[in-house]
Amino acid sequence: MRKTLFLMLVLLTNPALGQEKQFKLQAPPTLVETGFLQHLLPRFSLKTGIRIQLSEGDADASFAETGVPVFRQDETVWHLENAGGDFTDAFEDWLLSDVGKRTIESFASSAGGPTFSADVEVVAEAKDTPLTGDAALGEKISLVQCGRCHVVNETNRMNAIGSTPSFSLMRTFADWQERFETFFLLKPHPAFTQVEDVTEPFAEHLPSPIAPVMVSLEEIEAITAYVGSIAPADLGAPIQSGVLQSP
What we know:
By secondary structure, this protein is α/β, with parallel strands linked by helices. It contains 9 helices and 8 strands. A 6-stranded mixed sheet has the order 2-1-3-5-4-6, with helices on one face. Strands 7-8 form a two-stranded parallel sheet. Strand 4 (68-73) and strand 5 (76-82) form a beta hairpin. It starts with a helix and ends in an 18-residue tail after the last helix. Mean pLDDT is 84; it is low at 1-18 and 242-246.
């Protein structure tokens, strides 16, 4: 009798001891239907003793499009919205821990189902900047400065070096614009290229091995605009941009 009264007194004075370690979690049906949560949640409960009850209504935390990014489903990054609390904070910390990440990575979906990853880094899609240069000027500069090595167009087809890629071929590269805008940094161009107010003069003991290519930033913009105006070469299949020499 005394033990019972003592236990009741303890629970009344410290209500937290009388509460089960659990919280409610809301998740969209599209996520629940993957079976991923049936893999994830029991493993968290096993490690921590905190039970998670899925709820379609009010919840203490939820998987949503905003909050702390915790895992990726194919191309979708899921976030945890946490209202705050010891149990939900523990869940968030576990998801971001090494153990939680390994648990996420270990999920094996059925054949053809979604895959999950703990890598939630968002990679920004590279976008070409608008071409504002003078394309007509770019064609003239290209023939004079680049045409010694590259086929710029039909005008110099018989005068270029056959081992260097043509402009129309390089136009097929996914990163063609960046390559042309920064060509003076890409080998072998630094050895013989000078960009006004940008590059350092050639060292006295390392002069240019050929007649230097002398251009300005305005002329580089014009060259890039011209390349943007020509049609990519018809190769019949995509090529890898890293295989051939840069412009």
